[in-house]
Write a structure and sequence with these properties.
membrane; metalloprotease; single chain; 311 residues; 5% strand; metal-binding; hydrolase; mainly alpha; 2 domains; elongated; 4 strands; 4-stranded mixed beta sheet; transmembrane; 13 helices
């Protein structure tokens, strides 16, 4: 079991620093943002499972298996004494594993509650201050001179445009903006961003957590851009993006203090429109998908292997 714990610890380190660093600097995710987004989710899930699993397996190693450790320790948690085979370092590892799992779960729940509370508040304000846009279901118009467009997710979704934006855009540009915002809603980008926002909130001192959240937010924007490009044309989307600018989507990102698209992200999206639409080949895409599956499978298989293992 100690070997498994060491392997899980090494795997967690790889997923915590070098692999996310390489992925955040790679060029191919801009060509296949959906596959890159799946890989980022696999890295986050696999890294969390590996960190917790490493501590759990090491702490349970004196009993020879996870089930054996549970049988040896649970009856003595309140009645004592703790079996002497478990040293202080083993008990500390088990406590840290449980604390880390609880910390991550509570941060996810708290972030979700805050996001839902903010979404409800935004829907109330939208109902009060805006009017339905004729011919565009789930779209509201806000009387405001600044050109803005954003979406508010939830059970009841809404795309919000301002008068200033509608006046500044032609029909093709307006179609591109609406398609972009609806892509965020239809593809449930807020749920993906929520998970990475919670990870960043749980580990604010962890530099990769911030890098991952920014990368995922940019990939979500690119996915929405791709949908808009199918509804309109690249030049119309470019003009619309320049009109909206970098501050055009507060509703999609500000619901719980997450990353807000900035000028750097806008420049990356605009530069992408200048490049030919080259998707990753089927072999490359399959390799990334298999890599994502293996990243998640490794800690799960390791934990299952030590569930009833004998030392």
């Amino acid at each position: 079991m100690l070997t498994v714990a060491v392997l899980l610890g090494g795997f967690a380190l790889l997923l915590a620093w070098p692999i996310p660093l390489v992925l955040s600097r790679a060029a191919w995710p801009t060509r296949s943002p959906a596959i890159a987004l799946a890989l980022w989710q696999a890295i986050a899930l696999g890294g969390g499972l590996s960190m917790i699993g490493c501590l759990l397996v090491f702490g349970a190693s004196p009993a020879g298996s996870l089930l054996g450790a549970a049988r040896a320790l649970l009856p003595h948690l309140f009645t004592g004494p703790i079996p002497p085979v478990f040293g202080v370092v083993h008990l500390a590892a088990l406590t840290l594993a449980a604390g880390l799992a609880l910390h991550l779960a509570l941060n996810l729940a708290l972030t979700a509650v805050r996001a839902e509370r903010e979404r409800r508040r935004q829907h109330q304000l939208i109902d009060l201050l805006s009017d339905p846009m004729p011919g565009q279901p789930r779209t509201r118009v806000l009387a405001h001179p600044v050109p803005l467009a954003y979406c508010v997710p939830g059970i009841r979704t809404a795309t919000v445009l301002t008068d200033g934006l509608i006046d500044a855009l032609d029909d093709a540009e307006l179609r591109a903006v609406i398609a972009h915002e609806r892509a965020h809603l239809d593809q449930l980008h807020h749920l993906v961003l929520l998970a990475f926002r919670a990870w960043h909130s749980a580990l604010p001192w962890f530099p990769i957590a911030n890098r991952a959240e920014r990368s995922v937010a940019l990939l979500a924007e690119m996915l929405a851009d791709d949908h808009a490009r199918r509804e309109s044309d690249d030049e119309a989307l470019r003009r619309a993006m320049l009109q909206v600018g970098s501050g055009g989507e507060p509703g999609a990102y500000a619901d719980s203090g997450g990353v807000v698209p900035d000028v750097t992200m806008l420049e990356a999206r605009l530069a992408r429109l200048d490049e030919p639409r080259q998707l990753s080949g089927p072999l490359t895409g399959s390799a990334v998908v298999w890599t994502a599956a293996i990243i998640v499978a490794v800690p799960i298989v390791a934990l299952l292997a030590t569930l009833g293992a004998v030392a």
